[in-house]
Write a structure and sequence with these properties.
binds flavin-adenine dinucleotide, globular, alpha+beta, 32% helix, 457 residues, single chain, eight-stranded mixed β-sheet, 12 helices
């Protein structure tokens, strides 16, 4: 065997697997294969000047490379079982929380010290939300911010690179199952290992499906969340964001009974585009450093869709909607809420005259030509509901960027060790469909590392 453990993917799941393996047994021979670049080489070419929108790089620096999809994220580590994944269904609620707290301690040790931990415990907003038919989910949120998140990753890499073999720009093509262990096949060679941890995240979703088909690993279709990113002047939500930083609020629509939720709130942040398998969607982030902050707050409003029979392809459904928006807008589209309500498209002139200045260059257009009526009705209802706890949310100049899609990978069948039907093959993080967040993905990495070391004892 070349290695005791091979980890595929250097996102939070892969990094924390490596960290814990090295810590528990420094003698282990470990390799990490990563399709994207090393951290210092990761650079999205969009500069807002020469390159204004996504040019479809071979390896997307936002989604791939050391740090994974989380590297340039806002670095919000949510310590909760209420959202961010269903890891607790496999390992129990208490254990899942303990692992997330452990990850938080490591992040503090590697450069995150001094960053703020927000909590919903005892918040007066819980009552205010309930009084307006909105529901605030419980969580503690460590906000590292994009800048400190990067520093933590730099420090973790500096430590790990001495103890682990990293192969960057090396996508794994396939995994083979010989009699013993695993054979990890890349373009320029194959490597063998006793245990293999697969942590390929959302960008590896198609690849993961292929591997599950080849190795006949059972899977289930997963849900997809579709919606828009809302951008408003920071003052409108400041009473919530100052106390909670990020509030996850859920609303059940009166018209259809669908649940709409806020997601990934970025006080004084910026809206950004992201490219998943060639489809350009919208996202957001913010900085801890006041010098880099903007005057706006952004968050997503998402509706969950899960198809099962006879149509199972929830991801394909969302991709079609995102493609439609890409077709009409050439990328991400932006519309003023007032224009949407009046049934008119936003034009460059209307956006220019808006009192809310967009933080991202997107094509002014009409989201009602892109989003299905049911989803759009739900989003509009929720904007009016939010307006009751944060007056101004439903202003004409509120900007809506579309579309935002949260693709969840199909769920891979794994046991409580996150091991699939093959001994020694672990599927973790967002690639498993079980986690959808930095904290859950990282916690799943620690969990498998402990199981691997324990099994070898
Ligand atoms: C812009 C943005 C902002 C976000 N903000 C937050 C936030 O504030 N809080 C939060 O909780 N979550 C956030 N998220 C989500 C979070 O980043 C993910 O949940 C998390 O990164 C998942 O970790 P992971 O290790 O499972 O997968 P990933 O981070 O996706 O890492 C997987 C890695 O595997 C690599 N890979 C894929 N296929 C292969 C292959 N065949 N061979 C080798 N390598 C491969 C990829 O290149 C990638 O680097 C954000 C995501 C984005 C895109």
């Amino acid at each position: 065997m070349n290695y005791d453990v091979i980890i595929i993917g250097a996102g939070p799941g892969g990094i924390f697997s490596a960290y814990e393996l090295v810590k528990l047994n420094p003698k282990l021979k470990i390799a990490v294969f990563e399709a994207g670049h090393a951290l210092e080489k990761r650079r999205c070419p969009i500069d807002g000047d020469k390159v204004k929108s996504c040019i479809g790089c071979k390896s997307c620096s936002i989604m791939s490379g050391f740090g994974g999809a989380g590297a340039f994220s806002d670095g919000k580590y949510n310590i909760t079982n209420d959202f961010g994944g269903t890891l607790y269904e496999y390992i129990g609620k208490q254990r899942a929380l303990e692992l997330m707290q452990y990850v938080d301690e490591i992040n503090m040790k590697y450069g995150g010290e001094g960053t703020k931990l927000y909590t919903t415990a005892g918040s007066k907003f819980k009552k205010l939300c309930m009084q307006n038919d909105l529901h605030l989910l419980d969580a503690s949120v460590r906000h590292l911010g994009t800048d400190i998140n990067y520093v933590v990753l730099e420090n973790l890499y500096a430590d790990l690179k001495e103890k682990v073999d990293f192969f960057f720009d090396t996508p794994v093509e396939t995994i083979e199952k010989p009699e013993e262990g695993y054979r990890v096949v890349c373009k320029d060679g194959a490597y063998t290992c006793q245990n293999c941890i697969v942590s390929v995240g959302r960008s590896g979703s198609k690849w993961m499906e292929k591997i599950c088909e080849e190795l006949k690993i059972p899977t289930q279709s997963n849900r997809v969340d579709i919606g828009v990113r809302v951008e408003i002047p920071a003052e409108i939500f400041s009473h919530l964001t100052d106390e909670l930083y990020e509030s996850k609020i859920v609303y059940r629509t009166q018209k259809y009974g669908d649940k709409v939720r806020t997601f990934c709130m970025n006080p004084k942040g910026a809206v950004v585009s992201e490219n998943t398998n060639g489809i350009v969607t919208v996202n957001g982030h913010s900085y801890e450093d006041p010098a880099k902050q903007t005057k706006n707050t952004n968050f997503a409003l998402l509706v969950a869709k899960h198809f099962s029979e006879p149509f199972k392809d929830s991801t394909g459904y969302a991709e079609s909607i995102a493609r439609l928006s890409n077709m009409l807008g050439g990328g991400v589209m932006v519309q003023r809420f007032g224009d949407l309500i009046r049934g008119q498209r936003s034009t460059p002139k209307r956006i220019e005259e808006s009192f809310t200045t967009p933080t991202m260059s997107a094509t002014p257009g009409d989201l009602s030509l892109v989003l299905p009526k049911r989803l759009l009705d739900g989003i509009i209802e929720m904007i009016y509901a939010l307006d009751k706890i944060a007056p101004g949310t439903a202003n004409d100049d509120t900007l809506l960027y579309g579309v935002e899609v949260k693709f969840y990978n199909m769920e891979v069948e794994v046991d409580e060790k996150l091991q699939c039907c093959y001994d020694g093959l672990y599927i973790i993080g967002d690639g498993s469909g079980i986690t959808h967040s930095l904290s859950h993905a990282s916690a799943s990495g620690v969990h498998v590392a402990r199981n691997i070391v324990k099994a070898a004892e």
